[in-house]
Design goal:
The structure is a single chain. This protein is α/β, with parallel strands linked by helices and 199 residues long. The chain has one domain. It is built from 6 helices and 6 strands, in the order βββαβααααββα. A 4-stranded parallel β-sheet has the order 4-3-5-6, with helices on both faces. A two-stranded antiparallel sheet has the order 1-2. Helix 1 links the parallel strand 3 and strand 4. Helix 3 crosses helix 5.
Length: 199
């Protein structure tokens, strides 16, 4: 969709075709659902670090941020603050109310979408937004909701809105564990990579 920009760590970033937001608990294999299949952590890392046309966010339990080296709600708030303040305090408060200690699941998802809409206000050039969560978010406007087990089934059958090219070359070991064979640049909370899209 857009030109690529380079981060301080040499990573390429471009305006995405798809944005995928993942919950963690009962959704990703680091804390799987007891009765359903979970999304392998390797898929999350693959989509986030091997596929430049896809941006991945942690919008549930924020431990996933460090386990997969992906941006989360803190980075979304920082990005929104950078985009809105000091000129548009009211618009900033639309998504980050002053009294909220932390954003809920739906508020965080709405904020992630608002960031991309602000970075590229042309409605014809918006990415597809997908949320993978064990909680039913099908009523949330602007997102295609997938339960983790239906997301896994769709990937395996080739009917998912994104493709995980297999075999995946990354492990299911969280980046927070010393035996993880991968290393990715840490997410910069103060200067999220998504802000490079405006340069």
């Amino acid at each position: 969709m857009g030109e690529e920009q380079t981060t301080d760590f040499g990573e390429q970033i471009r305006y995405p075709d798809t944005v995928v937001c993942f919950d963690r608990d009962y959704t990703v294999s680091v804390n799987p659902h007891p009765n359903h299949e979970a999304v392998p952590l390797s898929w999350v890392k693959h989509l986030a670090h091997e596929r430049r046309e896809i941006h991945v966010w942690a919008t549930g339990n924020q431990y996933l941020r460090k386990e997969a080296a992906i941006p989360g709600i803190n980075e979304a708030i920082t990005s929104w603050q950078e985009l809105m303040l000091p000129d548009s305090v009211e618009r900033f408060r639309e998504y980050v109310p002053p009294q909220s200690a932390r954003l809920g699941r739906k508020e965080g998802l709405a904020l992630v979408r608002a960031i991309y809409e602000e970075l590229n206000p042309n409605p014809k050039n918006q990415p597809d937004f997908i949320v993978v969560d064990d909680v039913d978010l099908s009523g949330l406007g602007g997102y295609e909701h997938k339960f983790p087990w239906t997301f896994v089934d769709a990937i395996e059958s080739g009917t998912a809105p994104v493709d995980v090219q297999r075999p995946v070359s990354v492990s299911d070991v969280p980046l927070t564990e010393s035996n993880c064979p991968e290393s990715y640049p840490p997410v910069d909370r103060d200067d999220p990579a998504v802000l490079r899209l405006r340069e």
